[in-house]
Write a structure and sequence with these properties.
CATH superfamily: Glutaredoxin
Shape: globular
Structural class: alpha+beta
Distance between the termini: 22 Å
Number of helices: 3
Order of helices and strands: EHEHEEH
Radius of gyration: 13 Å
Strand order of the largest sheet: 2-1-3-4
CATH architecture: 3-Layer(aba) Sandwich
CATH topology: Glutaredoxin
Helix content: 25-40%
Length: 87
């Protein structure tokens, strides 16, 4: 069964750590989707609430295997950086 991973980054405009996370994703060669949002955008607030994460960015890894999808909350910039260094 074929599987692949991609990353979703929920980013706030003007946030330096969001820019750092976006740079990491770009430089890593990983497949990613970046949502650059206003600080009060409902999608950003929903992501922060869903993953119980108070700050931005919010980084989520999604693994797709056939029809199945699973998500893993990575964290913010610091956790994303550490995650990529371990890989």
């Amino acid at each position: 069964m074929e599987s692949y991973k991609f990353y979703t980054l929920y980013l706030a405009e003007g946030c330096p750590y969001c820019n750092f996370a976006l740079d990491l994703a770009r430089d890593s060669g990983l497949e990613y989707y970046a949502h650059l949002l206003d600080w009060e955008d409902p999608l950003l607030l929903e992501a922060k609430d869903k993953y119980n994460h108070k700050t931005v960015p919010v980084v989520v890894e999604t693994t797709v295997e056939g029809e199945a999808r699973s998500e893993r909350f990575i964290g913010g910039y610091t956790e994303f950086k550490a995650y990529l260094e371990e890989a």
